[in-house]
């Protein structure tokens, strides 16, 4: 019989897929590490598993304990799956701007979700930060993973993503490109690849325009899961050789192209990372192998990136050579321009 003991054993060992169409005119091989094949649908399953197992070993997380983390996204899903399989409770704290769909995904996996008002100061007792700290203090057996400072976040990539890429490319990878959120992926994977290749692999970070990693002020941008307005300790700046800033518009247009042209329905940070990877690959020759990591699936972004209306509201669909769509033609007719 061939079966897995539980969904936990499906974490990691995700496939590498060649990009064939968005790479037109590029000589280097560009390969995508498709992380939506993880059981929770994102790269964050890797860190959830390692952070929980390390806390079990250190005694910080005891049998029947409760995991408390401020997260509304992929990390929550990963933690919820590993927690339920190992018999822990989860309480996630998220701001009220998070979509009900995301909250319901976490609840579907059995987690409790506490929703906090966005429109209060960080010092207010009901703020996102204060509520999660209070829950940790007041819940018996509570443990907070804190992905931004937990060394097991980058270590999970050092021990899984990095070695997988080295093996899958037969040691031929020359460039690794990934988005930077907590910095765990780039630090752990990039660190391993530098070490095993004797410094031969170039590590490139992709960052939303406005985020601190690419020299921005932390001003808002719409790509989710990447960029920061502070420097987390999970991020090891020494590993990164170059950081490429990418606009929301370029990120989302590439995200849509990946679905249409490569059969990859992925999230906005994936489009962002691919834009950066192609900018790197354009400078390279036929012997170079660029790997770009795609953190999650596009299913969570259907009412945003994959909605024409939402894209149009932000002016993200406009570009020279865009074929007119039915709505455009009607609107122009009404305006008498046709
Ligand atoms: N993209 C998405 C959608 C994410 O959720 C994350 C994690 N915050 C990242 C990219 C960046 O990964 P990391 O936190 O390891 O830097």
From TrEMBL:
From the UniProt record, give one GO term of the biological process aspect. cysteine biosynthetic process from serine
Q: Name one GO molecular function term.
A: cystathionine beta-synthase activity
Reaction(s) catalysed (UniProt annotation):
L-homocysteine + L-serine = L,L-cystathionine + H2O
Pathway linked to the protein:
Amino-acid biosynthesis; L-cysteine biosynthesis; L-cysteine from L-homocysteine and L-serine: step 1/2
Q: Which terms in the GO cellular component ontology are assigned?
A: cytoplasm
UniProt KW keywords: CBS domain, Lyase, Pyridoxal phosphate
EC nos: 4.2.1.22
Which range is the signal sequence, renumbered to this chain? none
Q: What cofactor is needed?
A: pyridoxal 5'-phosphate
Q: Which family does it belong to?
A: Belongs to the cysteine synthase/cystathionine beta-synthase family.
Name by which UniProt lists this protein:
Cystathionine beta-synthase
- Organism annotation: Streptomyces alfalfae
């Amino acid at each position: 019989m061939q079966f897995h003991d539980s969904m936990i054993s499906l974490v990691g060992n995700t496939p590498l897929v060649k990009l064939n169409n968005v790479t037109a005119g590029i000589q280097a091989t560009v390969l995508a590490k498709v992380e939506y094949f993880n059981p929770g649908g994102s790269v964050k399953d890797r860190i959830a598993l390692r952070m929980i197992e390390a806390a079990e070993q250190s005694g910080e997380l005891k049998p029947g304990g409760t995991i408390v983390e401020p997260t509304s996204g992929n990390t929550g899903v990963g933690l919820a799956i590993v927690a339920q399989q190992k018999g822990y409770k989860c309480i996630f704290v998220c701001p009220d701007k998070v979509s009900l769909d995301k909250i319901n995904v976490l609840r579907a996996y059995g987690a409790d979700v506490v929703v906090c008002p966005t429109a209060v100061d960080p010092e207010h007792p009901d703020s996102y930060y204060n509520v999660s700290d209070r829950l940790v203090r007041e819940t018996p057996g509570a443990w907070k993973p804190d992905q931004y400072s937990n060394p097991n976040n980058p270590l999970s990539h050092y021990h899984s993503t990095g070695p997988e890429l080295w093996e899958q490319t037969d040691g031929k990878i020359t460039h690794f490109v990934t988005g930077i959120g907590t910095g765990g992926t780039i630090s752990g994977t990039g660190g391993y690849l530098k070490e095993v290749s004797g410094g031969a692999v170039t590590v490139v970070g992709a960052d939303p325009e406005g985020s601190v990693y690419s020299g921005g002020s932390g001003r808002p941008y719409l790509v989710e899961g990447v960029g920061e307005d502070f420097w987390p300790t999970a991020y090891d700046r020494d590993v990164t050789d170059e950081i490429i800033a990418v606009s929301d518009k370029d990120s989302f247009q590439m995200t849509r192209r990946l679905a249409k042209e490569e059969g990859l329905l992925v999230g906005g940070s994936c489009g962002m990372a691919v834009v950066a990877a192609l900018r790197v690959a354009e400078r390279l020759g036929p012997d170079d192998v660029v790997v770009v990591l795609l953190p999650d699936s596009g299913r969570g972004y259907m009412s945003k990136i994959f909605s024409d209306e939402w894209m149009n509201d932000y002016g993200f669909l406009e570009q020279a050579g865009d074929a007119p769509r039915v709505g455009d033609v009607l609107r122009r007719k009404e305006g008498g321009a046709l």
